[in-house]
Amino acid sequence: MCASNLNSPAQSTTQDFATVFARLKPQMRTLDVYLRGEVAAFEPEIREMADYCIDTSGKRIRPALVFLSGWNGSDQPSPELVRVAAVVELVHLATLVHDDIMDEADMRRSRRTAARQYGPEAAVLLGDALFAHALHLASQFPTTEVCHAVSDSTRKVCAGEIVQTLRRGTTNITREDYFRVIDLKTAELFRISCFLGGKLGGFPVEFVESASHFGRHLGIAYQIYDDLADYFGQEKSIGKTLGTDLLSGKVTLPLLVLLDRLGPDERAVLVDEVLRLREADLPLRLRQMVEFDVFAQVSAEIEAELVKAETALAAYTGLAPVPLLRQLCDTLRAQVGSLAVPPGA
Amino acid sequence: MCASNLNSPAQSTTQDFATVFARLKPQMRTLDVYLRGEVAAFEPEIREMADYCIDTSGKRIRPALVFLSGWNGSDQPSPELVRVAAVVELVHLATLVHDDIMDEADMRRSRRTAARQYGPEAAVLLGDALFAHALHLASQFPTTEVCHAVSDSTRKVCAGEIVQTLRRGTTNITREDYFRVIDLKTAELFRISCFLGGKLGGFPVEFVESASHFGRHLGIAYQIYDDLADYFGQEKSIGKTLGTDLLSGKVTLPLLVLLDRLGPDERAVLVDEVLRLREADLPLRLRQMVEFDVFAQVSAEIEAELVKAETALAAYTGLAPVPLLRQLCDTLRAQVGSLAVPPGA
Questions:
Q1: What is the number of structural domains in chain A?
Q2: Is residue B96 part of a domain?
Q3: I need a labelling partner for B309 at 20 to 30 A (CA). Which of A132, A343, B2, B322 fits?
């Protein structure tokens, strides 16, 4: 599929993550009940805080990957799938709690962040406690495999976030650097979600390996999409302000593409904006993003990753999870397409 | 043993933690080599940072508890003991990295804290990565038992720290509240160190259980000692400023005892100081600590915990670890005793 047909408003209205996820409603309900039950395992003094963090308004993409990769046709997921879905979601929630401290974010999903609600000091520890509980659940499997995989992935996620943090406000970043960071900070947890879902769903080891590759490339595609949406999103539907990455000195793929396209003088000005030596001219940058067709180049990269993801599953079209996982790729294509629609169209 | 004989300068010069730990030099060297080797397991981008955090100047009390509880008479610890010593130390180091962010501490052990060296944002994630790697090592044991124990303990440590953080600048704290917090934030990791040391040392389950109790009470005693040293320590030898707990609004046992002893009017003033409604009169509080003999009352509590710790081991005097573990109690007694010596004596 070429990048151009991503630009279809029809797709964006008929298909989005909600469509695929609608099939997972029973699983997500089971997961919610399970997570709420786990709050009782926290020490009484911090239960309310843990409960606050385990809110139900998130997208729950990682648990969805677990359920889809382990799908056996039944709406009633096995207790093992539910537990491992909880593990990956708790790790993700822990990283969100810590991210919000670092970004000094006040709101997430229309409510106060944990850092705002309980103070950054308590939020550091609350993130730790969520993460510790994730590993505690992981240790309830008969073997150490889940602990091993989840702790290894978590270290990678942290490494990716650290590198990204330390690179803020610098411009000597290559495409390889960018891809390395999103591989660690986002794709790793997508990958492990598919790996563990397939594994605990009882699928053959070759499929589990392929599902891992699928998850990794879907994760890379998803993060590039997220970075693209920071410049091309519709503020109302995405619920955030455009250009926050530029304003915070964070160089993502759209900016790398724009830097490539600008002449030397204009590039020097943009570099100064990233280095925060001068105020960013956001309206100009947003216009240049359109002018130089950054969208097409970036969405081509997304498409390349989605093709890799689909190719990883090509040998297993007969297995129950595969049509659903592939549908996720189409869903993401549609979401990318909807970004191309000018605001108000 | 009554509290009064804690006050013996002779003990404090002949016996301190260094004496017991001198026996553990070969084990600690093995641990250091092992930890340095583990740095290579971190992603290349964060290896230098991980290496910085795994410095060798710490007291290594928790690894010592592992080695002593698993002691079989040989100086060459088993690979399992070394690994589990690394696990508990990494968890401890992770909590220190996060503590230093919250306390906005610039220095620890005569060098910059990770938060000061790499910025608080990177330090949050670095602590996470250290913790994740601890769990990764824990998952290398044949069963999930170590993961289970360590993740559960870590959540308790976090819960204790959260409660302590949220209680700063409040005075409606009972002794029970105080003991609950130190049980979680300090005693839990001491307990699990002894538990896992005894377990992996191959000792009978009854002893392992008793070593657990020993570790817990030693941990409570150690934390009370640490809180006492904040008011009675000798600034030079302890290397920190006295009274920092009062200045940061943290109510520990010495302050609880003093609040009990003061008349209503004076108590109201001290309460205001804790609430930070007025500046703390630190010299007055230090004089009152002596005047009302807070030292004797607090050291009696330490002694009570040490007796509980020793009693837990009473049935196992024939086992190799027991004389060494009991020696730790005497060592702590000597350290408490040395606090009673007036500065300059």
A1: 1
A2: yes
A3: A132
- Give the structural domain span for B169: 3-219+317-338
Give the HSE-up count for residue B35: Cα atoms under 13 Å, Cβ half-sphere: 27
Half-sphere exposure of A240 (CA within 13 A, CB side): 17
Nearest to A290 by CA among A253, A268, A258: A258
Distance CA A61, CA A82 (A): 14
CB-nearest to A151 from B94, B98, B135 is B135
Least Cα separation, residue A34 to chain B (angstroms)? 18
Q: What ipTM describes this predicted complex? A: 0.90
Give φ, ψ of A240 to 5 degrees: -145, 165
Beta bridge partners of B107: B112
Amino acid type, B111: R
Indicate whether A345 belongs to any domain.
no
Q: Which two tokens stand for residue A342?
A: 């000018």
What average pLDDT score do residues B246-262 get?
Answer: 95
- CA distance linking residue A325 with residue A154, whole number of Å: 23
Q: Which residues pair with B111 in a beta bridge?
A: B108
Q: Which of A339, A172, A161 is nearest to A256 (CA)?
A: A172
Per-residue model confidence (pLDDT) at position B273: 94
- Give the whole-angstrom CA distance, residue A94 versus residue A123: 9
- Measure A229 CA to nearest chain B CA, in Å: 24
- Residue B10 confidence (pLDDT): 34
> Does a structural domain hold residue B334?
yes
Eight-class DSSP state of A187: I
Find the residue in A nearest to B136 (Cα).
Answer: A151
Least Cα separation, residue A142 to chain B (angstroms): 7
- Domain membership flag for residue B146: yes
Hey, which residues 155-194 in chain B have their CB within 8 Å of chain A?
Answer: 155-156, 158-163, 165-166, 184
Structure-token pair, residue A146? 């889940």
pLDDT digits (tens, 9 = 90+) for A56-103: 678 899 999 999 999 998 989 999 999 999 999 999 999 999 988 887
Pick the more confident residue, B236 or A98: A98
Residue B334 maps to which CATH number? 1.10.600.10
* pLDDT tens per residue, range A225-252: 999 999 998 765 555 678 889 998 999 9
